[in-house]
Design a protein that fits this description.
single chain; mainly beta; 9-stranded mixed sheet; globular
Length: about 160
């Protein structure tokens, strides 16, 4: 009887151990350009661009080595959209993005100026241009540091 309880206990602990959550795959990300005027979106968005266009362009805030887009990557632009002042910032939070089923969740840092802060009155369009490892995903979401979905793209 005690032997059966021991076997049952070991079996249940194996199902809930640290390996139980290892089913989430991660995809590699690279920043090609950050907080450059790389998008003309009015609202927050994600768009896919042709890699050949990126290769032929000199990107602001990038180095020549960054312009190498491999054939196993797709190029995505995550934009905050038009903003009325300076002080907005968009960064990549991690070089790895979790793939949950068909959804790729890109971790971003989304910063807005503090309420009442003194900022220049100028229209800005902060964005990130990323090289994202190709994979079996049909949707991309930009998730901020608070777990809020900021933009989505169906592929």
């Amino acid at each position: 009887m005690y032997r059966h309880l021991l076997i049952l206990s070991l079996t249940l602990s194996a199902c809930t151990g640290p390996d139980a959550n290892r089913h989430t795959k991660e995809m590699n990300l690279r920043v090609l350009a950050a907080n450059a005027p790389c998008a003309k979106a009015e609202k927050a968005s994600i768009v896919e661009v042709d890699a050949s266009q990126v290769l032929s362009a000199r990107l602001p805030n990038s180095t020549p080595a960054d312009n190498t887009v491999l054939k196993n990557e797709r190029v995505l632009i995550i934009s905050m959209g038009m903003r009325p002042t300076a002080g907005y910032l968009l960064n990549l939070a991690s070089a790895r993005a979790p793939l949950n089923g068909p959804v790729l969740n890109i971790p971003i840092v989304w910063r807005e100026p503090a309420a009442g802060s003194m900022v220049a009155q100028v229209i800005t369009q902060p964005c990130l241009m990323l090289a994202v490892e190709k994979g079996e995903y049909s949707e991309v979401r930009a998730m901020d540091q608070n777990g809020v979905e900021r933009a989505r793209l169906a592929l």
